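[recover] target loaded
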């Protein structure tokens, strides 16, 4: 009923945007059949009607009206009855193929263990918490919520818990999923209306002893997914099952998260992983060399540690590049000269290769917001914060005058100065903001 109500509002909007002939012949006969995960599926009465609506002149106006009544991110898919029924049939077949495997334990990366995790000042508390939960699940910290920037070791620790439990308590059903996997499983369960896939989904996620969800921040702005995860969370918690959640930010900074979920996440232990200091980076590089049998000089270790800022995966990638370059030269070990040559193209962002448009695009992609909203007049928190971050980066990386930045965003000099100074101060006082800025700069450097 809600879908029909919203669709009627769409029709009222689009009727004023297209010709009467196009509206009467093609648009008014469309039937909304599904709205899941920001995708609206419309069935056209014939293949001809589907093709007509998919013409850019009509489709763009229809999409604009849909995004006004649904969400700015809604994707519109036009199909016909035969095509839609065929897609349902294929989904049913796929569910049948995978049903027998739905309750298998997660497979964990054998390299990701507590023994292989390098502990330093930046991560010793969160590592201790994860070990404590692995040793006695559901007894101490439940839920356990860990957060930190990209490449700091969150996924390593989650797999370490899984490997530990599989070795010491193999009778436990331990499930590790990314937020994307949870979302996709739920969407597939809704699409397969002819089967018991919804029950299968709940059977998979609610009959576990330990549930670990990675990158939970991507659940934001997905109302249906949040509802299902809330119910899954409650079921597990009430049955004294361990829940471990990883994110790139703490619950209080997930502005698009429902308050009841934010409250649940905050009810246990919340611990952050900070960016590694120099000593920890050196230890990580040496540990990696020992594991992989790499031979490099100590000054090369120092060079790589100073070359990177925060991302451990990126640092390991540089190490592999140095070792590979040495092997091409037929050498058993890498010297500092070889390392500098191997990484000569790796450096800081070249400001003259950047422009405001690239920074805006990167911010939109990173925060999952539209360009129209970012430079527009919306003042809700999930738009204001990315906008302030964008203003700061444009000023910091391009050194564009504040008045020029103001013209991009339609704001005066004072507002732009406030946004710049706010982010600048947060970088000094909030480790999460500092990590966030470094992550975005890293993306800009690679783009």
């Amino acid at each position: 009923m809600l879908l029909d109500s919203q669709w009627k509002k769409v029709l009222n909007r689009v009727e004023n945007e297209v010709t009467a002939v196009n509206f009467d012949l093609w648009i008014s006969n469309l039937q909304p059949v599904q709205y899941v995960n920001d995708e609206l599926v419309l069935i056209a009465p014939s293949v001809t009607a589907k093709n007509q609506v998919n013409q850019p002149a009509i489709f763009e106006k229809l999409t604009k009206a849909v995004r006004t009544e649904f969400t700015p991110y809604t994707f519109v898919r036009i199909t016909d009855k035969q095509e839609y029924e065929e897609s349902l049939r294929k989904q049913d077949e796929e569910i049948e193929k995978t049903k027998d495997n739905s309750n298998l334990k997660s497979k964990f990366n054998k390299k990701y263990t507590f023994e292989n995790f390098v502990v330093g000042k930046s991560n010793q508390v969160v590592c201790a918490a994860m070990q404590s939960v692995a040793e006695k699940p559901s007894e101490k910290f439940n839920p356990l919520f860990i957060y930190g920037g990209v490449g700091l070791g969150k996924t390593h620790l989650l797999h370490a818990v899984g490997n530990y439990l599989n070795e010491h308590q193999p009778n436990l059903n331990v499930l590790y999923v990314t937020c994307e996997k949870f979302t996709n499983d739920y969407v597939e369960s809704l699409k397969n209306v002819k089967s018991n896939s919804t029950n299968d989904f709940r059977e998979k996620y609610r009959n576990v002893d330990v549930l670990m969800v990675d990158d939970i921040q991507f659940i934001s702005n997905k109302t249906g997914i949040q509802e299902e995860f809330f119910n899954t969370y409650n079921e597990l918690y009430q049955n004294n099952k361990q829940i471990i959640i990883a994110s790139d930010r703490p619950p209080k900074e997930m502005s698009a998260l429902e308050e009841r979920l934010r409250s649940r996440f905050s009810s246990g232990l919340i611990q952050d992983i900070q960016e590694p200091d120099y000593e920890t980076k050196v230890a990580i590089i040496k540990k990696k060399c020992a594991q992989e049998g790499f031979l490099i000089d100590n000054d090369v270790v120092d060079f790589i540690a100073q070359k990177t800022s925060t991302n451990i995966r990126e640092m390991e990638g540089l190490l592999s590049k140095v070792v590979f370059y040495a092997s091409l030269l037929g050498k058993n070990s890498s010297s500092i000269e070889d390392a500098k040559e191997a990484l000569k193209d790796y450096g800081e962002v070249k400001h003259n290769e950047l422009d405001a448009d690239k920074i805006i695009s990167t911010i939109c992609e990173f925060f999952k917001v539209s360009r129209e909203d970012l430079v527009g007049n919306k003042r809700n928190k999930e738009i204001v914060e990315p906008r302030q971050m964008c203003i700061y980066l444009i000023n910091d990386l391009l050194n564009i005058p504040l008045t020029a930045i103001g013209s991009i965003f339609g704001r005066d000099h004072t507002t732009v100065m406030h946004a710049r100074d706010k982010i600048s101060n947060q970088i000094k006082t909030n480790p999460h903001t500092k990590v966030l800025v470094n992550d975005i700069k890293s993306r800009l450097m690679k783009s």
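[recover] notes: The chain has 21 helices and eight strands.
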